[in-house]
Amino acid sequence: MDIGVDEIRKWHTNPNKIGGPYRDIGYHYVIRRNGKIEIGRPIEQVGAHAGKEGNPGSIGICVVGGKPLLNFTRAQ
């Protein structure tokens, strides 16, 4: 599936999201299938990508694709 920040932001901010919604996309960056890097949540904000213990002091990067197929592209 070729998705980016816009699609993920809609999922993460959906009022019906289980465990959410988040105030914004949980990741700071998204790397699309074509290798393009999109900016998500502002880097100054703590992400929502690694649980309460893992989020502070880290940067969330989502690489589109992967599990269960491990189908990352050469561009990524």
Give keywords.
Lysozyme-like, 2 helices, 76 residues, three-stranded mixed beta sheet, alpha+beta
Summarize the structure.
Helix content is 16%, strand content 12%.
What does this structure look like?
By secondary structure, this protein is α+β, with helices and mostly antiparallel strands. The protein has one domain (5-63): 3-Layer(aba) Sandwich (Lysozyme-like). It has 2 helices and 3 strands, in the order αββαβ. Strands 2-1-3 form a 3-stranded mixed beta sheet, with no helix packed on it. The chain is globular, with a radius of gyration of 12 Å. The chain starts with a helix and ends in a 13-residue tail after the last strand. The mean pLDDT is 93.
Residues in β-strands, percent: 5-15%
- Gap between N and C termini: 14 Å
CATH top level is Alpha Beta
Number of domain modules:
1
CATH fold descriptor: Lysozyme-like
Largest sheet: 3 strands, mixed
Gyration radius, rounded? 12 Å
Question: What would CATH call the architecture?
Answer: 3-Layer(aba) Sandwich
